[in-house]
Each structure stands twice: as C-alpha cells, then as structure tokens.
Amino acid sequence: MVWYQPVGIGIFFLAAIVSLILYLLYRKFYPIAYVIFLALYIFTLSYLIDVFQLGKNWILGLLAVTAIVMMFLGYYFMKQVPIAKGPRK
Predict the structure, then answer these.
(1) pLDDT, tens digit (0-9, with 9 covering 90-100), for 28-55
(2) How many angstroms separate the CA atoms of 7 and 33, rounded?
C-alpha cells in the first residue's frame, strides 16, 4: 500500500504554510531551513517505512540510527563553524 505520497503532499503543504508564517514573522531564512529539513526528514522516513514495509522494531531502529547521526552531525558542525563574537546590532 502506498501511503507515503499523501503523507508527503500533506507535509509539503503544511511546511509551506509554516515557512510562510515564519518568514512573515522573522524575515530570516534559518527558521525556514529548519522547517524544510524537518519536512524532508519526515518524508524520507515515511518513504523508507512504506517501501521496505518495515515492522515496529525496524522503525524504532531507523529512528534511533538517524537520531544518532543527527547528533553527531550537530556536534561536528558545532566544532567546525566559528562563533562570531563582538558587539551585536
């Protein structure tokens, strides 16, 4: 059964609405990037779950592995990107 397509379309429109609201409120790109990455993450996981017909334990394992990868990537980029210090405007 193919259910990832309606989920993906729903997530896309929800992310588009939230991105528009965040842009109108803050006029910055990084909140929109967070929404885009979260929507892409949800769609990718739902695609993998549906295509490979994963069971309950495989879904939990997939979520755990991706969470660990994201934590290591966050730690890596935290060390790589210098923090600008100085007067704020």
Answers:
(1) 888 898 898 899 888 888 888 888 888 9
(2) 20
